[in-house]
Automatic annotation (TrEMBL):
Gene3D superfamilies: HR1 repeat. The lineage of its organism: Eukaryota, Fungi, Fungi incertae sedis, Zoopagomycota, Entomophthoromycotina. Residues 12-74 form the REM-1 domain. This is REM-1 domain-containing protein. Pfam families: HR1 (PF02185).
């Protein structure tokens, strides 16, 4: 997505910003899992919680990506005069 497109459509910008935040959440969870694997080999319940959080984050990312694609297609359709 280009910067100009985000500036023109606040809904697209909002979804894009949510994607950025959720990507940071995912990276944080991955880092915590890596640290857990390095330092806390026996603690399974915390690892399971983090793995579930990672699954949730991946699901949110997939949903946000889909929403962004739909909004971008809608915006493109409006630009070229197609009825949606």
């Amino acid at each position: 997505m280009d910067e100009d497109q985000r500036d023109r459509d606040p809904e697209i910008a909002s979804v894009y910003n949510q994607l950025i935040i959720e990507n940071k959440v995912k990276l944080g969870i991955q880092n915590m899992l890596q640290a857990h694997d390095t330092f806390k080999k026996g603690d399974v319940s915390n690892k399971q919680k983090m793995e579930q959080e990672l699954i949730t984050s991946n699901n949110k990312l997939a949903a946000l990506t889909k929403e962004l694609e739909i909004r971008q297609k809608l915006q493109t359709s409006k630009k070229i005069g197609l009825k949606v």
